[in-house]
Amino acid sequence: MQAYEDSEPIVRIRDLKKDRVNFVLDNADLAFANAIRRVVQADIPTVAIDMVEIEENTTVLPDEFLAHRLGMIPLVSVNCDEAIRYSRECTCLTGCQYCSVELRLDVSCHDNRTMEVTSNHLEVIPPMNGENDGLPGEEITKRGEDFGHPVGKNDPAVQPVLICKIRKGQQLKLRCVAKKGIAKEHAKWSPCSAVSFEYDPYNKLRHTTHWFESDERAEWPVGENAKEEEPPRDDEPFDFNAKPRKFYFEVETDGSLGPQEVIMRGLAELQTKLANLILGLKAPPDVDMMNGGGGDPGMPPTNGHTTAGGWAGGGWGSMSPTGGGWGNGGSAGGGWAGGTSPAQNGGGNSGGWATSPAQNAASGWGGTSPSQNAWGSNTSPNSGATGSGSTWGTGVQQGWASPSQQASGWNV
Ligand SMILES: [Zn+2]
User: Which of 288, 317, 339, 394 has the most beta carbons within 10 angstroms of its beta carbon?
Assistant: First the structure.
């Protein structure tokens, strides 16, 4: 185990296709693997139809039925970060070319046969060149040629998405506005149709219980991933301290983004979330944390990353009369790292825990704690971490595979 934790996480791509990737993540913690899965599933922005104006609908399907189907059609969202704004961050009032993509559909059937209205009938209205509504923005130049188009439009190898079927005399005419969003808000913005990982194919850790009638191994055949691991010996004793370290990922996208962009964006998003957490926890230097973080819940945050006083404003300390909602050890029941409270540390050590996970370690989070595993307890993950801490509490040198922590906003 120790040797495992001495090195950094390793990623080995086993299969990479246009819309899927299969890779092995080794030397990582279960929580980290799951964090990647969650972030990839729910936090990566794409564009999807968000508003539908129906002009004419004489099909057999009601308007809202069609609107829902249109929303679920995957649209090409490559470089979504730079190519489009969130509407809520845009200066326009009702939607403009910088924060939305307009699509139109107008299909009517004149023949004596059933006709299929599909995503191939959706036409993107190109943004007006030169006319920028007086608003500055370079988003449009960052868009690819097919940005906002239904995935696989006019590609004979890709079957279009069926919207509805119409007969002679029926018509569907509508206007759609696609917007940028994330799947936490609505699943239509998820770039992934499936994200999963497997670990411990032999169930050595006994994280699951196999019900069986007579022969467990015969009734629960192992999968392909078992080839990557040593089969358990018949006389092998159960290791209570073993932890999963190797994860077999399968990520399938809906085509709006490529699998590589999905994973890389996911890691960047995770990094941003953690950096924001560190920033949010950063105590303003002039606040007396010993007295419950200044005791003013309405104090404005000083770093711009927090809201309404709670985090940076010292809400921690003030949550509890003992001055340490989190780490107040014994009396508070453990909190994070036990030991002394973060409030006390923060105040007494010029900058507290937020200057960087590594630097602070000695005084902030895990330093005095008995468990020493979480956050940044040491400058090296292997010297003090108990296993679960290795991917997080990495030091300045190791990081998680980020060679430029300073530049990428880690050391705040
Ligand atoms: Zn706008």
Answer: 317
Q: How many CA atoms lie within 13 A of 119 on its CB side?
A: 24
Distance 130 CA to ligand 1 centre (A): 16
* pLDDT tens, position by position, 289-322: 555 444 444 444 444 343 333 343 333 433 333 3
pLDDT of residue 139: 86
From the CA of 54, how far away is ligand 1's center (Å)? 22
Question: Angle between the 30-42 and 259-281 helix axes, to the nearest 10 degrees?
Answer: 110
- Decide which of 133 and 276 is more confident: 276
291-311 burial: b if 16+ Cβ within 10 Å, else e? ebbbeeeebebebebbeebeb
The rounded percent of the chain whose pLDDT value lies above 90 is 60
- Going from the Cα of 303 to the center of ligand 1, the distance in angstroms, rounded, reads 27
96: DSSP letter: -
Q: How far apart, in whole angstroms, are the C-alpha atoms of residue 257 and residue 153?
A: 15
Each residue's pLDDT tens digit, 234-257: 899 999 999 999 999 999 999 999
Q: For the segment 123-140, what is each residue's pLDDT rounded down to a tens digit?
A: 999 987 555 555 557 888
Selection from 155, 170, 156 nearest residue 117 by Cα: 170
Closest CA to 29 of 8, 15, 44: 8
Residues 409, 275: contact at Cβ < 8 Å? yes
Domains within the chain, CATH numbers bracketed: 6-43+192-213+222-260 (3.30.1360.10), 48-186 (2.170.120.12), 282-384 (no CATH)
159 secondary structure, DSSP code = P
Tokens of 192: 């992934």
- The position carrying tokens 């962009």 is 261
Q: How far out from the chain centre does Cα 344 lie? A: 33
Say how far apart CA 260 and CA 20 lie, in whole Å: 9
> What is the secondary structure of 58-83 as a DSSP string?
-SSS-HHHHHHHHHTS-B--TTHHHH
Mean pLDDT to the nearest integer, 41-65? 97
Distance from Cα 152 to the centre of ligand 1, integer Å: 27
Higher pLDDT, 146 or 135: 146
